[in-house]
Amino acid sequence: MKAALTLTTAQIEALPNAPLQVIAAPGVGKAIAVLGIQYAFNLIAGYTLSDSSPITDSSDIATTYGANVLNAIPATLGSFLSSATPRLYVLQGSDASVTYAAVDNQPIYIASDSENGLDFIGGDPANSLGVTIEYEIIDL
Question: Fewest Cβ atoms closer than 10 Å to its Cβ: which of 17, 48, 97, 111?
Answer without folding.
Answer: 97
